[in-house]
C-alpha cells in the first residue's frame, strides 16, 4: 500500500479529498493530514510517504517550499498540487520540482482518480526496479561472501588450488591480500558433554563474529571468518609492524570471550594458533596447526590460547590396544551383552590414559574409529535398523563438545549403550509378536479343541521352540494359559447365565463333562454348581 499525506490549511478541503477516493481500492492509505507546512514536514519525516497532496498557499511554508523540503527528506516522494486558481508560471516551477500533476479546485473526481492511477503505476515500476536492483546487489554481495568463506573451507579440507599468486586469489575469492604475514587461528566453543541435548551454538555466530572483528580487524590488511559446528576459523593477513600488536589483541579476544561466555551459555573456550607464514601457499600448515592445537584442550585444559604444534609421530601402541579392544567389543556386541561392552570400554579408557604422550587429535581420531567399527559390526550382523551415518554424525557432534578424556569416553560408552539397548528392545518386541498373536488366537478359539501344534504352526515355529518362547514371554505354559482362559469364561457363564453346566462345558471347549468338572474343582476348590450358588 502506498502511503499518502494530505496538506491544506482548510480542514474541510482535507476531509473532502479524503472522502473523494476509495483509497484502499487504489492500493493506497492516508497516513496523515496536516493543516500547515510545518506539520506537513514532520509527517514526511515520521511517515516517509510515497505521495503528498498539497495546497499552494498555507501557513508555515508555501506549496513549493514544502515540496522542496519534502524532497530533501524523501527524494522519491510524488507530489500533487491543488490550487484555487490557474497560474502557468507557478505550474512550470512546480513541474521543475518534480510535481506529478497540478489540479484546480473544485477537484474533478475522474481527473483526480486518473492522476492517482498514474502515480500508483509509476511507483510500482520504480519499486519493482529498486527491488530488482537491490536483489541483484544482495546476490553479488552474498556471492562475494560465499567465495571468501569458500577459500577457508577449501584450506581446512585440503582442497585449496594453487594459491601462490595473491592477485589471482584476490580476484577469485574477493580478498585484498597484500605481501606480509598470513595466519590462521581457531576458536572453539564447548558446551560440555550432554547426552542427547543439542546446543544453540548457531545463534552465537553473529555475536562472536562481531567480537572478533571489533578486536582484530583494524590491525589486519584483510580478515575472514568461517563458522561451522561451534568452531570459528579465522584467516588474517597483516604486515610486520602489527605482528606483536595482533598477538596482544588475540589475548584480549580470549579475555573478552571468557567475560561473555556466561551470556552465551558457553562452558569452555579455546583458541588454537597456527604459526604465521609469509607465503599464502603455506597457509594450510597454519590451518592444520590451529585445528590440532584446539584438540590439545583435552590434555592441557581450556579457557586458554594453545600454540600450534608441528607434525608428531602417532603412538605405535595405540593401534595395538585399539585392535585388541575392537575384537572384544565385537564379541560383546554380537552377544548383545551390555555389561561386557561396558567392561571392555572401561578397560580401554584406562589403557589410553596410561599414554602420557598421546596427542588430543589422536584421542579424538581413535574414539571416532572405535565408533565406526561398532557401526560396521552392527551392519555385519544385520542388527542396524537405523541410518549408520546419521548415528555417526550425532556421536561426532556430541564428542566435539567434550573437553576431557573422561567425558569423551563417557560419550562413546553412552552412544554405544543406547544403540545396544534399542536393538535389545527391538529384538524383544520381535520375539513377543508371535506370542501376542498366539494369545489372540487362543482367546478367539478357546471354545473348540485347539492344540500346541496348531498354535505353534500359526506362529511359525516348531512346537518345542514355541513352547519355550511362550513360557519365557508369559511366565506360563501354553496349556496353563489355555486352561486359565477357559476357566475364566466358565466362571463368567456360571455367574451371569442360566446355562447348564453341560452347556457351559461345551462352550468353553471341553467335550467330556466329567473331565471339565474335575479340572474346575481342582483349580477352584469347588464344583461348578457350588461356584454358581456362591457367586450367582
Automatic annotation (TrEMBL):
GO terms for molecular function: DNA-binding transcription factor activity; sequence-specific DNA binding. The modification 4-aspartylphosphate is found at residue 55. GO terms for cellular component: cytoplasm. Residues 436-534 form the HTH araC/xylS-type domain. Keywords: Cytoplasm, DNA-binding, Phosphoprotein, Transcription, Transcription regulation, Two-component regulatory system. It comes from the Bacteria. Its main location: cytoplasm. It is found in: Cytoplasm. May play the central regulatory role in sporulation. It may be an element of the effector pathway responsible for the activation of sporulation genes in response to nutritional stress. Spo0A may act in concert with spo0H (a sigma factor) to control the expression of some genes that are critical to the sporulation process. This is Stage 0 sporulation protein A homolog. It comes from Muricomes intestini.
Amino acid at each position: 500500500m502506498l502511503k499518502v499525506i494530505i496538506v491544506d490549511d482548510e480542514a474541510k478541503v482535507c476531509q473532502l479529498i479524503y472522502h473523494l477516493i476509495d483509497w484502499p481500492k487504489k492500493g493506497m492509505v492516508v497516513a496523515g493530514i496536516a493543516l500547515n507546512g510545518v506539520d506537513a514536514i514532520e509527517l514526511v519525516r515520521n511517515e516517509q510517504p510515497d505521495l503528498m497532496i498539497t495546497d499552494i498557499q498555507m501557513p508555515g511554508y508555501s506549496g513549493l517550499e514544502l515540496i522542496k523540503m519534502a524532497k530533501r527528506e524523501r527524494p522519491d516522494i510524488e507530489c500533487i498540487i491543488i490550487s484555487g486558481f490557474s497560474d502557468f508560471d507557478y505550474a512550470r516551477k512546480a513541474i521543475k520540482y518534480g510535481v506529478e500533476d497540478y489540479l484546480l479546485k473544485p477537484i474533478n473526481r475522474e481527473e483526480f482518480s486518473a492522476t492517482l492511477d498514474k502515480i500508483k503505476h509509476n511507483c510500482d515500476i520504480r519499486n519493482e526496479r529498486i527491488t530488482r536492483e537491490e536483489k541483484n546487489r544482495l546476490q553479488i554481495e552474498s556471492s562475494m561472501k560465499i567465495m571468501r568463506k569458500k577459500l577457508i573451507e577449501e584450506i581446512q579440507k585440503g582442497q585449496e588450488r594453487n594459491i601462490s599468486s595473491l592477485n589471482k586469489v584476490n580476484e577469485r575469492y574477493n580478498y585484498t591480500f597484500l605481501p606480509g604475514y598470513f595466519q590462521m587461528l581457531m576458536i572453539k566453543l564447548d558446551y560440555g558433554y550432554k547426552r542427547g541435548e543439542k546446543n544453540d551454538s548457531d545463534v552465537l555466530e553473529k555475536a562472536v563474529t562481531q567480537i572478533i572483528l571489533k578486536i582484530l580487524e583494524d590491525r589486519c590488511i584483510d580478515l575472514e571468518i568461517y563458522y561451522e559446528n561451534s568452531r570459528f576459523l579465522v584467516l588474517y593477513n597483516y604486515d610486520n609492524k602489527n605482528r606483536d600488536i595482533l598477538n596482544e589483541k588475540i589475548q584480549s579476544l580470549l579475555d573478552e570471550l571468557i567475560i561473555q561466555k556466561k551470556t552465551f551459555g558457553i562452558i569452555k573456550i579455546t583458541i588454537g594458533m597456527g604459526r604465521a607464514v609469509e607465503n599464502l601457499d603455506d597457509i594450510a600448515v597454519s590451518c592444520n596447526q590451529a585445528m590440532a592445537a584446539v584438540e590439545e584442550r583435552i590434555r592441557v585444559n581450556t579457557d586458554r590460547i594453545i600454540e600450534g604444534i608441528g607434525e608428531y609421530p602417532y603412538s605405535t601402541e595405540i593401534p595395538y590396544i585399539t585392535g585388541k579392544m575392537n575384537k572384544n567389543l565385537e564379541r560383546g556386541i554380537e552377544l548383545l551383552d551390555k555389561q561386557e561392552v561396558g567392561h571392555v570400554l572401561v578397560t580401554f579408557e584406562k589403557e589410553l590414559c596410561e599414554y602420557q604422550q598421546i596427542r588430543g587429535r589422536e584421542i579424538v581420531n581413535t574414539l571416532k574409529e572405535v565408533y565406526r567399527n561398532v557401526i560396521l559390526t552392527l551392519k555385519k550382523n544385520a542388527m542396524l535398523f537405523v541410518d549408520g551415518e546419521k548415528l555417526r554424525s550425532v556421536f561426532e557432534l556430541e564428542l566435539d563438545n567434550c573437553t576431557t578424556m573422561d567425558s569423551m569416553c563417557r560419550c562413546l560408552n553412552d552412544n554405544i549403550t543406547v544403540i545396544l539397548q534399542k536393538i535389545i528392545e527391538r529384538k524383544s518386541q520381535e520375539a513377543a509378536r508371535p506370542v501376542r498373536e498366539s494369545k489372540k488366537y487362543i482367546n478367539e478359539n478357546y471354545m473348540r479343541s485347539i492344540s500346541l501344534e496348531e498354535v505353534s504352526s500359526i506362529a511359525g515355529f516348531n512346537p518345542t521352540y514355541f513352547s519355550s518362547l511362550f513360557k519365557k514371554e508369559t511366565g506360563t505354559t501354553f496349556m496353563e494359559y489355555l486352561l486359565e482362559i477357559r476357566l475364566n469364561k466358565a466362571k463368567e457363564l456360571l455367574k451371569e447365565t442360566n446355562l447348564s453346566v453341560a452347556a457351559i462345558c461345551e462352550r468353553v471347549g471341553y467335550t467330556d463333562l466329567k473331565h471339565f468338572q474335575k479340572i474346575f474343582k481342582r483349580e477352584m476348590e469347588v464344583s461348578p454348581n457350588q461356584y454358581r450358588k456362591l457367586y450367582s
